[in-house]
Amino acid sequence: MNRRESIRSIFLGSMAGGLALESCVTEPKAAVEQKIWEYQYGRTPKEQAYDEKLLGQQFFENSELAKIKRLANLILPPNEEGNIEDAKVPEFIEFMAKDFSSIQTQMRGGLMWLDNHTNKNYGKDFINCSDNEQHQVLDLIAYPDSNSSEQKQEVRFFSLMRNLVMTGYFTSEAGIKELGYKGNQPNIWDGVPEDVLKDHGMSYDKSWIPKFVDQSKRNDLAQWDEDGNLIS
Which of 124, 148, 186, 209 is 20 to 30 A from residue 91's alpha carbon, by CA? Predict the structure, then answer.
């Protein structure tokens, strides 16, 4: 099982809950309204107004969003089904940060720690580190020493970040496709099974059988005559 499949199994086993934030930057109303939402899902007027308020604000600075985007790609690398950008995971995390103020300090503090750590050890910000250096940093907080008392805050930050990324991706169109979820799908029904009909001493009128067994016409609309008889 590869890393992505492992993460998918974790996600299917239990979706992480509780997340989000608040800010000061506003967008033109037309731009905000265009974002509410790309997928309409039955929000009440009060909920829509709340969404509009959050979407019109920005919490993370652009440099922080760049780190979030890079972290998300390290946690869930792109594949043939989709990627972090297509799934708009950074936008999801930004929204959740505005919606749940309880994670703001933890998120911002974790992002600051990344730069502090890499500047101390590699002489550059996290975003400018090589792939190998970035992985070395994340290994410290993704797979921490259970006996160590250090970096507890950083470990909690990465756990939160990982949960946000998985939730954002696997609730997107690309993520749902990767999970293989199909939802309700139409099937082919050719009537009550013969053995069930026999148990009840019943049978179909032979003239009706072609009308519902011919699956090539399954999308055709039924036609009725003036007396209410099915003619097609």
Answer: 124
